[in-house]
Design a protein that fits this description.
Elements (H helix, E strand, L loop, with lengths): L6 E2 L10 H7 L1 H4 L11 H21 L6 E4 L2 H16 L6 E5 L4 H9 L6 E5 L9 H7 L6 E5 L11 H10 L3 E5 L11 H4 L3 E5 L10 E5 L27 H39 L4 E2 L10 E5 L6 H7 L3 E2 L15 H5 L4 H4 L2 E5 L6 H26 L1
Parallel strand pairs: 1-11, 3-4, 3-5, 5-6, 6-7
Antiparallel strand pairs: 2-8, 7-8, 9-10, 10-12
EC number: 2.8.1.7
Enzyme class: transferase
Organism: Rhodovarius crocodyli
Length: 392
């Protein structure tokens, strides 16, 4: 750990680019920058072959076939294509009910809600106090014919891992399509599209130590999942995502997926150990510290922590600038309201405002984890002391 270097514990917002990924990408910017659609010449064909190799790596990570992977600009676009594309292709034929959870990513919730303007019926289910889906509520909701169910695999804020196999079986029995936002899950937990019976899966490059600006959407081929594209163009990516392919980014995501498939589960085990050491050290300094969300069903690097004593999370982060954490999802950082996810868990507003999200990752060292706990604990104690003295 270099002196004075900030300690980065915000891996749910983004991950650092793995040096191996950067090395894999560089030649496709500096040496062969051709358009992969330029199949008339040797440079274009070489780029095209590298893109297809990357597609195969992404597919292998989730147990899919290469032809089932559509490259996008990221998980937000993938989620939009999956939800709006499925609904618009179905049109007025069959069920028009779309089910999701109150704790889903904003882009999923907004996509589902927007479909109400097109005559679809959005159904937003509550979750249990631990953040997990209530399967009885889902079963009840599926008693009404349903077009699509969308559930996040591993939560970006509270880290809980939903029971995807059980959900998938229930959704298939009801005759609906199943979409999974796996941006925080792929490469961190065992994930196989066949085991969970998913029809659509969204992925993000920069959440798996790959580049920003690239993602992917798994679209099942058998039985075929049909989607309407969001915009028109040259017909790239099976006509679902037109536009010139950003080859270096796709190749980088492919390499990140290859590394995740080979090393991700080992990474997760090590990271979980460091997370527990961090939590034990911080809990010893902060009596009454609470972890939000299921402790058992949780992605390895995540901690969502409510600090006692009414200390505002923003004040705590200002008091500990050496530690890079967050008060919630980076995608909702423009909002000054307390986290809608925590409110959905029944956490009071004042406690939600006293909550931090901590995310350890592949390159977090034991020394950094220990030092971060020490800094945050000392900052919290100082804020408590300052407030007590001000009140005297």
């Amino acid at each position: 750990m270099r002196p004075n270097r900030p300690i980065y514990l915000d891996h749910h917002a983004t991950t650092p680019l793995d040096p191996r990924v950067l090395a894999c990408m560089r030649p496709w910017w500096e040496e062969n920058f051709a358009n992969p659609a330029s199949v008339e010449h040797v440079m274009g064909r070489a780029v095209g072959e590298a893109v297809e190799e990357a597609r195969a790596h992404v597919a292998e990570l989730i147990g899919a076939g290469p032809m089932e992977i559509i490259f996008t600009s990221g998980a937000t676009e993938s989620n939009n294509i999956a939800i709006k594309g499925a609904a618009r292709f179905a049109g007025t034929e069959g069920p028009r009910r779309v089910i999701t959870l109150a704790t889903e990513h904003k882009c999923v919730l907004e996509s589902v809600k927007e479909l109400a303007n097109e005559g679809f019926e959005p159904v937003i289910l509550p979750v249990r106090a631990d953040g997990l889906i209530d399967l009885d509520l889902l079963r009840e909701a599926l008693a009404t014919p349903t077009l699509l169910v969308s559930v996040m695999a591993a939560h970006n804020e509270i880290g809980v891992i939903q029971p995807l196999a059980e959900i998938g079986a229930m959704v298939k029995e009801a005759g609906a399509a199943f979409h999974v936002d796996a941006a925080q899950a792929a490469g961190r937990i065992p994930f196989d599209v066949e085991e969970i019976r998913a029809d659509l899966v969204s992925l993000s490059g920069h959440k798996m130590y790959g580049p920003k600006g690239v993602g992917a959407l798994y679209v099942r081929r058998r039985p075929r999942m049909r989607l309407a594209p969001l915009f028109s163009g040259g017909g790239q990516e099976r006509g679902l995502r037109s536009g010139t392919l950003p080859a270096p980014l796709l190749i980088g995501m492919g390499e990140a997926a290859r590394i995740a498939a080979a090393e991700g589960l080992l990474d997760s085990g090590r990271i979980a150990g460091q997370r527990d050491v961090f939590l034990d050290a911080l809990s010893a300094q902060v009596p009454g510290l609470r972890v939000n969300g299921s402790r058992e069903h949780r992605v390895s690097g995540n901690l969502n922590l409510t600090f006692p004593g009414g200390i505002d999370a923003q004040a705590l982060m200002r008091a500990a600038p050496e530690v890079c954490v967050s008060s919630g999802s980076a995608c909702s950082s423009a909002s000054i309201e307390p986290s809608y996810v925590l409110r959905a868990l029944g956490i009071p507003e004042d406690e939600a405002r006293a909550t931090l999200r901590v995310g350890l990752g592949r390159f977090t060292s034991p020394a950094e984890a220990s030092r971060a706990a020490e800094i945050l604990g000392a900052a919290w104690a100082q804020l408590i002391t300052d407030r007590s003295q001000a009140a005297e």
